[in-house]
Amino acid sequence: MSAETHAHDEDEPHVLPLKLYVGIWVGLMILTAITVAVSRFDFGLWNTVIALLVATIKGTLVAMFFMHLRYDNKFNVIVFLSGLLFLSIFIIPTLLDVTTRGAIDPLRDTGPAPTGFVTRPSPPPGAGHGHEAKAHGE
């Protein structure tokens, strides 16, 4: 067998041009800046979705190019994607639960009090428990 028949042997490392690595690194730095910029704004329920979207893009870039999944055996890509599928099966119901807790049972909602909601101030320590008479020696 000649060297040409083993040109794409799976044991050989796949070397990419330095320009591509630098470009991906710059893209990751831009996405990191976007993450920081987005964290300074309140998008309501979309905060988590935006953060996960940017993190997914960054993770995909790292996995595809720095971990060489783009050029690796396609079975490894299937294993990687199935792991992400099962991870999403655990994360999505949890996110749905957290974002809809107040809508399902508003009496047990632990969010901030509605505007105009009046609360009684808490009494000072020891007040109203019969400790006053004992403190004065009565």
Brief summary:
The chain has helices at 18-39, 46-66, 74-99, 101-104, 131-135. It has 138 residues and is mostly helical. The radius of gyration is 28 Å and the shape is elongated.
Describe, in plain words, how this protein is organized in 3D.
It is a single chain. α1 packs antiparallel against α2. The termini are far apart. This protein has 138 residues and is mainly alpha-helical. The chain contains 5 helices and no strands. It is elongated.
Largest sheet features? none
Number of helices: 5
**How much β-strand is present in the residues?**
under 5%
Which radius of gyration do the C-alpha atoms yield? 28 Å
Sheet/helix structural class: mainly alpha
- Topology, number of strands: 0
Q: What key attributes describe this structure?
A:
138 residues, mainly alpha, elongated, disordered N terminus
